[in-house]
Amino acid sequence: MRVSAPLISCASSMSLQPFPCAEDEDCGPEEFCGGAARGGGAPLCLACRRRRKRCLRDAMCCPGMTCSNGLCTPPEPPHGAAELEEMGTDALPRRTPAPAWIPTAKGEEGDFCLRSSDCAAGLCCARHFWSKICKPVLREGQVCTRHRRKGTHGLEIFQRCQCAEGLACRPQREPGPADPARLHTCQRH
Predict the structure, then answer these.
(1) In terms of Cα–Cα distance, which of 187, 184, 179 is closest to 144?
(2) Of which family is this protein a member (predicted)?
(3) Total domain count for the chain?
(4) Residue 2 in contact with residue 16, Cβ under 8 Å?
């Protein structure tokens, strides 16, 4: 046995039955006339659609929204709003602040990043397991990775940053036989 919850309409909040309608004006301020009852009956008053919800006409969207390209959206500012804003009028809506997930400051060591420009000075963006974090640029004497072929650094799961300015990644200077597997360190040019 299937049990369905009753639809409650703002215009008919006293009753548990949805309110039948013929046009949008028959419904409450945050409702529209649409959708037929189960079994193909008369249309019912339904709750308005919020921002970025699908719509077919303006009446389906909540007050203050319009149906644009099939989605409920807030209205566009009037033409010339930028000029009025420069004149100092507070009558027009301000731009919304950037979303919280967009970093506003440069990343510190260990912060997630997409590219080196996301990191603070002295840090670069390098792979760490399957994500990328800000890591310190290598200083003189620190072990570095020398890439023989372009693109091999993409296979590393623990990337190192490049050597700091004025340093180059070269084989470690030790007396003895030439060993191709010896360590590379950051050294002065």
Answers:
(1) 184
(2) Belongs to the dickkopf family.
(3) 1
(4) no
Q: Is the pTM of this model over 0.85?
A: no
CA-CA distance, 25 to 7, in Å (whole number)? Answer: 19
CB 54 within 8 A of CB 70: yes
- Choose among 60, 88, 58, 89: nearest CA to 75: 58
For residue 100, tell me if it sits in a domain: no
pLDDT in tens, 90-135: 554 555 555 555 545 788 898 888 888 889 999 999 988 888 899 9
CATH classification of the domain holding 124: 2.10.80.10
**Which bin fits 107, alpha (ψ -120 to 50), beta or left (φ > 0)?**
beta
Beta strands in the chain (DSSP E): 31-36, 43-47, 66-68, 71-73, 123-128, 131-136, 143-144, 167-171, 184-188
Q: What count of Cα atoms within 13 Å lies in the side-chain half-sphere of residue 171?
A: 11
| Residue among 74, 73, 81, 65 at smallest CA distance from 30 | 65
- Chain-centroid distance of CA 167 in Å reads 37
| 154 and 126 Cβ atoms separated by less than 8 Å | no
Residues in the chain: 189
Convert 75-105 to b/e letters by CB count within 10 Å (16 or more is b): eeeeeeeeeebeeeeeeeeeeeeeeeeeeee
The residue range of the domain holding 135 is 116-174+182-188
